[in-house]
UniProtKB/TrEMBL annotation:
Binding positions (heme): 440
Family: Belongs to the cytochrome P450 family.
InterPro entries linked: Cyt_P450, Cyt_P450_CS, Cyt_P450_E_grp-IV, Cyt_P450_sf, Insect_CytP450_Detox
Key words, A-Z: Endoplasmic reticulum, Heme, Iron, Membrane, Metal-binding, Microsome, Monooxygenase, Oxidoreductase
EC main group: oxidoreductase
Pfam families xrefs: p450
UniProt-recorded name of the protein: unspecific monooxygenase
Enzyme Commission number(s) from the entry: 1.14.14.1
SUPFAM superfamilies linked to this entry: Cytochrome P450
């Protein structure tokens, strides 16, 4: 009898799954949306751990040449947007319907759950409004000394490595620099990684980027199947990392609260968080330590590695493009002479070729290949398609940025396309920091970190390719990563300009 009941139950479950699968796999076909057939388990995510997400997005863009493409996140239908006009509508014009994201780190990870990158409305609106204070131009200029001092340390470190004839791992070098910059700004902690190659905070950021199967499954679930996050105990940050950051955060907060911020100005992100806590208390609200720590943690994690990788790809490209390198050096040298030797954030922001070089790196090597949103209400894409509330949307930034109709010869590194006088970049085709209300709040901070680091290095050193090193387009990209990261050590030869002219 028991076997009969079990058999009937198994048949019922199997029949339900088969019926459900028929509905799932026919979802986009019934709506006449271009698509590839889904895998019966992972849907369209069968590229994971085999192909970088940026390349997957580009492949979809090139295969269909369609304004939108249907995909499945496991069994959940989602829509990829390949059209600048649709991108504008989703990200800007109709942004109120796309405030939220599918991404979530679940209830078991409060630091991952409460940060500005993953949190949804209404908390997102409140956090965003308060945090906007720190990222104005005036506030960024107030942390000039952090950028400047760490960029000088970067030069000192390279000079030391040259004397010791070390092979310089670009990503490791620039990760040391960006850890110091973002760590000092977010946690008020002075780190010496740029000079020494090591510090307690640098060991923490190194853990961020270490791959394991568990971390890979965690990120897959957080981005594409958040329902699994709580079930399996996945987390956005490694638990050991949170333990350390919480300890540091409490110590520094205690020091500043004792001083009662009597310096009279907001110096960094930590001051903003403390001010946010004070204002909430006046309003009769209570802001938890986890909420404050979450913002500092995502600022550090979200900024240090993407900025370091951008500098890595930029220096590597310039080593293989001597004419571009010389043109950039000439602009920097002239600006330095006019400024009596010291380039500040205002001057750097106005250097058109420097900014064009950075934009071209971001175009060719986007940190993340898509901008994700989720529809709050049913939404009309066009006369042929209405997507229901809850449908995830992915704007295909990686595909747009490599479209030869939008960016001629996209595989080539051509900074001139971003010069103001050319005015050749169409709106919503180049979105390295997103667009609309939910664009990356740390955009200006990241640009300043890149400008200071790149300008100091190029004013001090000429960079050349090492013998037998691969061309930029032949470098291996980590297939396991959601982000566009190198899968090998990238190095160049640094030649001290002072020694060269001596």
């Amino acid at each position: 009898m028991i076997l009969i009941v079990l058999g009937c139950g198994l048949l019922s479950v199997t029949a339900w799954l088969l019926l459900r699968w028929r509905i799932v796999k026919s979802y986009w076909a019934k709506r006449n949306v271009p698509h590839n057939p889904p895998h019966p388990i992972v849907g369209s995510l069968d590229f994971l751990f085999k192909e970088n997400a940026v390349f997957w997005m580009r492949k979809i863009y090139n295969e269909f040449k369609s304004p939108y493409v249907g995909v499945w996140l496991f069994w959940r239908p989602a829509l990829i947007i390949n059209c600048p006009e649709l991108a504008r509508r989703v990200l800007v014009k109709d942004a109120d319907n796309f405030k939220n994201k599918l991404i979530s780190s679940g209830r078991t990870d409060p630091i991952g759950q409460l940060n500005l990158f993953t949190v949804n409305d209404p908390l997102w609106t409140s956090l965003r409004r308060r945090l906007n204070v720190i990222f104005t131009g005036a506030k960024l200029r107030s942390v000039h000394n952090i950028y400047s001092d760490k960029a000088k340390d970067l030069v000192t470190r390279i000079e030391s490595d040259i004397r010791q004839k070390k092979l310089i791992n670009l990503r490791s070098l620039f990760s040391d620099y960006t850890t110091d910059v973002f760590g000092d700004s977010a946690f008020g902690v002075s780190s010496t990684a740029t000079i020494t190659g090591d510090s307690p905070l640098r060991r923490v950021t190194s853990d961020f980027t270490k791959f394991s199967m568990f971390r890979g499954l965690s990120w897959t679930s957080i981005f594409f199947m958040p329902e699994l996050v709580d079930y399996f105990g996945f987390s956005f940050f490694p638990k050991s990392t949170i333990t350390y950051l919480r300890k540091v955060f409490r110590s520094v907060v205690q020091q500043r609260e004792q001083n009662k911020m009597d310096h009279g100005e907001i110096r960094d992100m930590l001051d903003v968080l403390l001010k946010m806590k004070q204002e909430a208390k006046i309003d009769g609200e209570e802001i938890s330590e986890d909420l404050l720590l979450a913002q500092a943690a995502i600022f550090l994690q979200g900024g240090f590695d993407t900025s370091a990788v951008n500098l890595t790809f930029t220096i590597y490209e310039l080593a293989h493009q001597p004419l571009i390198q010389e043109k950039l050096y000439a602009e920097l040298f002239e600006a330095q002479q006019k400024a009596n030797g010291e380039l500040d954030s205002t001057i750097l922001a106005e250097l058109s070729y420097l900014n064009a070089v950075l934009e071209e790196t971001l175009r060719k090597y986007p940190p993340l290949g898509f901008l994700d949103r989720i529809a709050l209400k049913d939404y009309k894409i066009d006369d042929n398609l209405i997507i229901p509330a809850g449908t995830p949307i992915y704007v295909n930034a990686a595909g747009l940025q490599m479209d030869p109709n939008l960016f001629p010869e996209p595989e080539k590194f051509i900074p001139e396309r971003f010069l103001p006088e050319h005015n050749s970049v169409k709106p919503y085709t180049h979105m390295p920091f997103g667009e609309g209300p939910r664009h990356c709040i740390g955009k200006r901070f990241a640009y300043q970190t890149l400008r200071y680091g790149l300008s100091k290095v190029l004013l001090s050193f000429e960079v050349r390719p090492l013998p037998n090193s691969p061309l930029p387009n032949d470098c291996h990209i980590d297939a396991r990563s959601m982000l566009m990261m190198p899968d090998e050590v990238m190095s160049v030869e640094f030649i001290n300009r002072k020694a060269k002219t001596a």
